[in-house]
Write a structure and sequence with these properties.
77% of the residues lie in helices and 0% in strands. The chain is an all-alpha fold. It contains eleven helices and no strands. Helix 6 packs antiparallel against helix 11. It starts with a helix and ends in a 12-residue tail after the last helix.
């Protein structure tokens, strides 16, 4: 991996890790639904600006409807779930739970898309779920019903990511593909439309004063533009330069940054459960993501 690619990988992990920090800051001030809605809405605006700057041709090739549905599954529901979790879970918790995404992908692929489930992958899934249990039950946050609901919301989000990966491959990538910016914009429009009626139904009477506070404005801009719009650019650049397998290693790094930002900027506490649960999830990810061993080729005389 080149130094430039490594720098991009670290930058992407730091940015995505910061998203949990921003949500943790915003949810207590403006609420769950506004946080979720403004994230995808601002992300769509940011992607429009990026596409205009890059002079990208806006051609959805008849797949706009599919992209809208993908956006609901890949962004709308997960963003809402993580916003719900941010009410009760520290940023570091949510970041570590997010690392279970590949594990959920293995389960979803095996249960619904005919993917093979090897013994090592099955063991990885079990270890990953064990890591979640350790973090939830032994962490610095008291184990209460609200914490369990928060952990469950994070796992629903990662399940959605698992589904989204497979349907995106089948509906978009395997049928000619689309420009990455166009795909991202379509999905963010779908997420915005999905959350809009809930936002209007629950947030019309929300106080507007917090929305003009500098800290809130900066957090919203960071969450929508930096952690979503700009992160897409880094992500797809990495896919093109180092491939999907190496790009997926960002999953290992996001929890480190999520915990770091929470400790440094939100005064969140550390415990041995962070290390123990994180190690279990890291080992689980290695079992799931490691390349399959090459079959030995018998020498012929």
């Amino acid at each position: 991996m080149s130094p430039a690619a490594l720098l991009n990988l670290l930058g992407l992990a730091a940015i995505w890790g910061a998203s949990f920090l921003f949500m943790r800051q915003l949810v207590p001030v403006i609420g769950v639904m506004p946080t979720a809605f403004f994230r995808v809405f601002l992300s769509a605006i940011g992607l429009v600006a990026i596409l205009l700057a890059l002079r990208t041709r806006w051609d959805f090739r008849g797949k706009f409807g599919r992209l809208l549905l993908i956006g609901v599954i890949s962004s709308g529901i997960p963003v809402l779930m993580y916003s719900l979790a941010a009410r009760v879970l520290p940023a570091g918790y949510s970041a570590i739970f997010n690392a279970t995404t590949p594990l959920m992908g293995v389960l979803i692929g095996s249960l619904f898309f005919g993917e093979s489930l090897s013994g090592s992958k099955a063991l990885g899934v079990l270890l990953g779920l064990g890591g979640v249990a350790v973090l939830t039950g032994a962490g610095p946050v008291p184990l209460e019903a609200a914490v369990l609901w928060g952990a469950g919301a994070c796992l629903v989000a990662t399940m959605c990511y698992g589904f989204a990966g497979f349907i995106t491959k089948r509906w978009i990538n395997d049928q000619g593909g689309l420009d990455f910016g166009i795909s991202a914009l379509g999905s963010q429009i779908g997420a915005t439309l999905c959350l809009l009626p809930f936002f209007l139904g629950t947030s019309l009477d929300m106080p507007l004063a917090p929305l003009i506070e500098p800290k809130v404005v900066l957090a919203l801009a960071g969450l929508g533009f930096l952690c979503t719009s700009f992160a897409y650019v880094l992500y797809f650049r990495l896919l093109a330069s180092i491939g999907p397998l190496k790009t997926m290693t960002v999953t290992f790094l996001i929890p480190l940054f999520g915990v770091l930002w929470g400790v440094l900027l939100l005064d969140e506490s550390l415990s041995w459960a962070h290390l123990e649960g994180g190690i279990l999830i890291a080992v689980a990810l290695w079992l799931v993501l490691r390349p399959a061993p090459m079959a030995k080729v018998e020498a012929t005389s």
